[in-house]
Amino acid sequence: MAEGDIVGAPPDHLWVHQEGVYRDEYQRTWIAFVEEETSFIRARVQQVQVPLSDAVRPSHLPPSQLPLMWQLYPEEHYLDNNSRIWEIEHHLMVRGVEELLLKLLPDD
After folding, report:
1. Tens digit of pLDDT for each residue in 3-23?
2. Quick check: helix, strand or coil at residue 42?
């Protein structure tokens, strides 16, 4: 697969497992990074295999701009556990790693 190639369907769900680490419905692990821009927030989420310890209780996680859960939503979006909508800007292979780039849309 060439760099920047579109991959199959994005994960249906991503649940936080520990700080910065999410699991999808196939138990694959995803690392999430916040990228703050002047007027919006992006999350770069990469499918990287990480050895998992026990899941952390949400109440024990530090405050974060990232949600506890993303659920695939119609029209290339995710809905998070706070009812915020994130646009899928891309879902590609980047340097051999499956990557989602999500942009938090403003509240209307």
Report:
1. 567 788 999 999 999 999 999
2. strand
User: Assign residue 83 a region: left if phi > 0, alpha if psi is -120 to 50, beta otherwise?
Assistant: left
- Say which amino acid occupies 34: V
Each residue of 40-87: pLDDT tens digit?
899 999 999 999 888 888 888 888 899 999 999 999 999 999 999 999
Contact 89/42 with Cβ under 8 angstroms? yes
CATH class of 13-104: mainly beta
Sign of the dihedral defined by the CA atoms of residues 15, 21, 24, 27, in that order: negative
Which residue in 21, 26, 12 sits closest to 55, CA to CA?
21
* Phi, psi angles (nearest 5°) of residue 58: -55, -35
| Residue linked to tokens 């701009």 | 65
Report how far Cα 36 is from the mean position of its chain's Cα atoms.
Answer: 15
